[in-house]
Amino acid sequence: MSARQKREEELAAQQALPKIVSIDEPIVVRDLAEKLKLRETEIIKHLFMKGMMVTVNQTLDVDFAKGVAKEFGFEVIETATVKHEGEYGQLDQEGRKKLDETKFSNLQGRSSVVSIMGHVDHGKTTLLDSIRESRHKVVDSEAGGITQSIGAYTVDKDEHRIVFLDTPGHEAFTSMRMRGAQATDIAILVVAADDGVMPQTIEAVNHAKAAKIPIIVAVNKIDKADADPDRVLVQLADYGLSAEKWGGDTLTVEVSALQKLGLDELLDSILLVSELLELKADATVPAEGVIIEAQLDKRMGPVATALVQNGTLRVGDNVLIGSVGGRVRALIDDHGARIQEAGPATPVEILGLDGVPNAGDSFRVVRNDKEFKQQLTAGKQKERDQRIGVSRAMAAGFSGKSEIESDNAVKENQFNLLVKADTQGSLEAVVDVLQRMTSDEVKINIVHSATGDISEADVMLASTANALIIAFNSKADANAQKLAEQEGVSVKRYEVIYHITEDIEKWVLGQLAPETEEVQAGTAEVRQIFKVGKSGIIAGCMVTSGKMLRNAKAIVMRNGKEIFSGPLNNLKRFKDDVKEVATGYECGISFDRFHDLQEGDIIEVYTVKALERTSL
Which of 17, 78, 161, 189 has the most crowded Cβ, counting Cβ within 10 A? Predict the structure, then answer.
């Protein structure tokens, strides 16, 4: 056998083997060509023939890349990869999320993460401040004493560390409270002893139950004269929280945040529940966790407050948060100190990201630089595509406050708003509460929302869209303020979200047509019928109350039943046309479209009164 024949047989044997490939992550065209043993131009040409223009550096998502491989005759197999899913791995017997212990070999006990929840002004932040015994009061810097964003803090008790998430107490931050419950192991439900169970108390209970986490009730303000802790426990029993001291399974602690009473008992209860939960994590694997809060800092750039749930986050790690990522430039703990690494159940600020992530997003560390860049590029492309789709949809109806007539001639009032806030969590809450103001009559359209101060680009967009700018703990620089004045763009600044809803409602009500009410102006009795011409008639009437008004809405009543409704077209006093006739005077009345008046009929006239609108 010649060497040529031998090579041909080897080539035929190779071609006879099944072509198998595995693709389990986004991949650029160049790497896909290398994986498929093809020239890059072959893939580019193949996609061009299908009407798609791609480059060698363009990233293809997993499903699309698999489809391309199949079109070239490859069999795509699923690889069995071990993913560190952390807290999202499994559910325990009670339905709570837990660590999938089969995937980790160095599990150790970890600190518990506690969320403080409850109704506004029931003392959540003051309780946390008392526990921390911090010199920097949390509540002092907050407008109206209401928490406006989520913070994460650590305290020590008997050589054990507890991580607290201070979730906002404002009713508008429902979604943030829900995220807080999902990120934590234990919920502290703060209820004021003098106030009892309130609507947000019930919301907090529902969120904690939905997240399958245990609840410890802290009955606060027991130092007040009208405090009644037992009444609170009776009310909570109606929502499935039966106090342990009454034979139930819910731990309850009576505390006074101001007087620092019962704090040790509360911490002991947390440690007891933590021990029963047997919380574990593996500090040796790449870190993963959740973003608690994020904002754009003028000095430090994008800053994200993260809670490490599993693994260890280190300076220099590649962090991926959806379409946002970057190499960790610095880590700052809850005391403001720079640290080199953060283990499980540690809140930490991350510096070095290329954008501001969304509060509540999951993050993970990707150690392979190439894989990190591919996944980050794919995430940004996906976000870009979504943003383009939203922009195109908005462009179709970009008109500020307008009246849009549909095929049924129904007019809709649309109000455009541009929202800026200091943090991502606050931004989501403000947008949520504004969108909930939309009704059948009023449409609130958020043309743009972002964190940071108001820029000239924001003002130009607001001017184009005829939008009002809402700034929550955000301000406009000098150039943006000057441009806003030139363009006639209104900028409203707020520190408490209640004021936003109040002002927007007043503003919207002022733009809407007033409500109207029909008011009876007078009544007249038909005393005699006069025929005019062949078919016309005039009713001789006596005004018995109020006054008759020409062209006002009239209703003809006969034997207590309405027989006609329409405008009072003709009103005469003797032979003269008049605009009105008062009580006690006779008059002549006729209608253009109704000629069946009879003696004894009652004619009622109504005027339309405009009423000031008080609610949407």
Answer: 189
